[in-house]
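Typical record was shown:
=====
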Amino acid sequence: MKKKPHINQLSTLVLLAALTACGGGDDDSAPGLKQYVGLWKSPCVTTSNGASGQTWLEVKAGPTTDAKFGATRTAHVFNNRSCAGNPARSKFYYVDGSRTGAKESSAGLANKVEISLFDPNGQEAPSSYGELMVIRDGHLYLGDRGNMGGDGYPADVDLSVAWTR
């Protein structure tokens, strides 16, 4: 009869060791990239000369899976303070995103995404960077580029910049 408590204690120790080994680091249970499909607009930013600017990120449904997405990013400049009407000028990029995992953030579990930007006119060299992406209360939040972590991704999301659909 004494062997039964010993077996239960051993099972508890094995379970505790397995749970401890899973702790810490990145959590990979965030929703995939399909949730980002659609047109997202950054907040309108005004300048001292009366102009305004807004960035649009359009994640395309066709090439998007839970692990990768295709998108366009367009930075618009308007000759008014409200980002209204037709833009005076725009800068367009193709975007590829690849999910590399997930990371806990102040907005919940965020996707870690490797972003690649391509200038369709070939005037700028392609670039890539690590980004955090999370949807909270219907808004898209991206990483705080001014606070980078040692893993090459932002340390947290920037809750002061809410992108809307």
